[in-house]
Amino acid sequence: MGAAYFYHLTRAPLEATLPMLLGKARQAGWRVAVRGTSKDRMTWLDDKLWLGPEEQFLPHGLAGGEFDADQPVLLTTAPENPNNAQCLMTIDGAGVAPEEVNSAERVCILFDGNDPSAVETARGQWRELTQAGCAAQYWSQESGNWAKMAESN
């Protein structure tokens, strides 16, 4: 049974935080699905990942290609899991079902702390998932370093 980790982005933007989390997930040996709500946003993210430092390159693909099942990191807007990911990362308020949390090694929910709507969406997701019995942790970078601020088992 997995857990949902909520990442409240206040100091570093998504394009800086996501590669760090993807790197940690890949080091754990997990395949990752990154789920968003907009194909344009996923294309933007794909471009950002290709432009990262060469020594930190993360092999990945944008969903919709013939090799989706082979991608170690797949950027998608769909609720399916075509690359058999053990870790799901969501951005921009993309939905997560309690069953996904329970069947994954880890679910990471990244949200922009400078966007009141994104914060409210994340709060709703926290309530939904924890009320369904999912383990969850809330991480904030407000002090400069990532710190666990809350936990629900």
Secondary structure layout plus pairing:
Blueprint: E1 3-9, H1 14-27, E2 32-35, H2 39-50, E3 61-62, E4 73-76, E5 87-90, H3 98-103, E6 106-112, H4 116-131, E7 135-140, E8 147-152
Parallel strand pairs: 1-6, 1-7, 2-4, 2-5, 3-4, 5-6
Antiparallel strand pairs: 7-8
Task: Summarize this entry quickly.
With 153 residues, the chain is α/β, with parallel strands linked by helices.
- Ranges where pLDDT stays below 50 over 5 or more residues in a row are none
Estimate percent helicity: 25-40%
Whole-number radius of gyration?
14 Å
Structural class: alpha/beta
Strands of the biggest beta sheet: in what spatial order? 3-4-2-5-6-1-7-8
Largest sheet: 8 strands, mixed
**What is the CATH C level class, in words?**
Alpha Beta
CATH superfamily: DNA polymerase III subunit chi
Order of helices and strands: EHEHEEEHEHEE
Output the keywords.
153 residues, alpha/beta, Rossmann fold, eight-stranded mixed β-sheet, 8 strands, 31% helix, globular
Structural features, described:
Strands 3-4-2-5-6-1-7-8 form an 8-stranded mixed β-sheet, with helices on both faces. The chain has helices spanning 14-27, 39-50, 98-103, 116-131, and strands at residues 3-9, 32-35, 61-62, 73-76, 87-90, 106-112, 135-140, 147-152. Helix content is 31%, strand content 26%. Strand 7 and strand 8 form a beta hairpin. The mean pLDDT is 94. The chain is of the alpha/beta class and 153 residues long. The chain has one domain: 3-Layer(aba) Sandwich (Rossmann fold). The relative contact order is 0.24.
